[in-house]
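Annotated sample (chain length 125).
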Amino acid sequence: MYISILFLMYQALLMLIVAYKINDTLIGNYNNTFNKGLAVLIVAVTVILTGVNITWIVFQFYWFDGCSYNTWFISISVVVGVLFYGLVFLRTRSDASILTSSFVFLYCLYLQWSAMSSNLECINN
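Output written by the structure step:
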């Protein structure tokens, strides 16, 4: 049990590092070349990931409506997701972007879905 907590923390750290590395690579390449196609790619990936996050939240509300605590967990995730996106606009980190927030929130939604789907009694069929 204790090792799984350490592994989960390690996995989350790696996910965060990968999200920042992808963002830094895309932004760095754009700043060096000013390629409009790369700018479109950055915006497209951000919009797609944000759309996937919103869609997944809606489906989680639909799928896991069988237990009240699932609704609470999903609602808390929505608030945390809005905070992820909001902190970017406050410029708390100079290298943060909506793209990194989208990656991290997608990972959080995956962990939430994985935990809730293991409880078959609360799945709305």
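Annotation: The mean pLDDT is 86.
Annotation: The two ends are 31 Å apart (CA to CA).
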